Fold this protein.
Amino acid sequence: MLLRNSSARAATAAALLVIAGGSILPAQPAAAAVPGAAAASRWADGVWRMDGYGTVLTVAGDHLQTYQTTSVSCLKGDGAGRSGTAAGSVTFAAPDATVLTLRPRGTREAALHIGGSPGDRMLRRIPALPADCSRPGPTGPVASFDVFWQTFEENYPFFAAKGIDWHAVRERYRPRINAGSTDAQLFAVLSEMVRPLYDAHVSVDAGDTGFFAQGRPGTAVPSPELDARVRGYVEECDLGGRPLQYYAGNRIGYADLPNGQGYLRISGFGGYTDDPHDSYAANSAELQRALDEILTPERTARLSGLIIDLRINGGGSDSLGLQIASRLTDRSYLAYSKTVRNDPADSSGFTRPQPIVVQPARGARYTGPVAVLTSGSTVSAGETFTQALIDRPGGTARIGESTQGVFSDVLERSLPNGWQIGLPDEEFRTRSGGTFDGPGIPPQYPEPVFTPEEFSHHRDSAFDRAVSLLSATGQAAATSRPR
């Protein structure tokens, strides 16, 4: 996906955005012109540096091209074609349906919004495209090693928190790679280098040679098989054999409970449609339809509590999580603040935090008490959604186990040999400036989640705790009402 990740910034070695016509860029195939778009969009012509993200974008005519930069490399990325111009903004659409919108901010700065990602990325004009972007670089095993190491060196924020000396890692592993190293040898080295991070947003995709990714020790990575097993268990154990009503490509399930509470199970924030690109716009529209059917005016008026089950949730779009949160409040409040690493030489250097606010949605909303069920298999957007409910007006209790501990969007990068890697570069900060990266968001009420003992005793302690807690909350609210 074009520019898929969740925030960072830098100097010459790091993120660049280039939007240009003419001579400073290699020739690119032009997309079909949009009628009336020409003059209104000329403000965007030129060369820009993104504040963080190690990324370059170029525009020649109506074609936008990305580049991935470090201090030792510049690799060509994906492209996009102009799709519109309105109210001073310029919009591009990538082949995977990602929408990029550029808006001017003064004469030297601009904001880039990526559809489906909360917040914007800041751009600053620079004189020209870096020389490395217009000439081929080395492609052998040593070059791939160097780009891999440098990409983490300039973008990964959590070495200190995880106790990793990344420079010592280079000294240990680089002698094992030379011009004659095989793909298998290089893959083994790169995987060993990042294994101690135990970061579910770190990956190495070496095609036929292998794929590396792992979660936090003691946690299970969400999978279709695990999801199907847990879904059946919930229907049998918690709902007494009654099936959930499914929506949004079976990623969302709902049931009214006999005690007046509701149960909402969300296994992901995406994959809601048959759209081959799984675009944000299509997912958002399908989610809106599902929420309109679930949170009807009649139901929201009578619910005494809502259980939201995220225990097996593989993540997706943070903005879809915010869309659900907007149906659970009647007041605006801070969900979290996003910031990104923007100093290649200093892992503690970040952009100014950008506040992301939950705004009440139009139409029916449920504003009563909520219990959120989480586990180590609550990952990524499942975690940012959990974080977005922490300060929710109306009360939210967290029950179960700590989440996985990965919040940033994934910065997707290529190596000179064509392999793909992924890593985080952002922090999602709380109102007090803290983060949950690494250990995850802890529960307020710890309970075992889908352990062998729970399964063998046909028990779901976290669900039972949520029912009990919401019942007590409802009773307390009822007795405190004026008569």
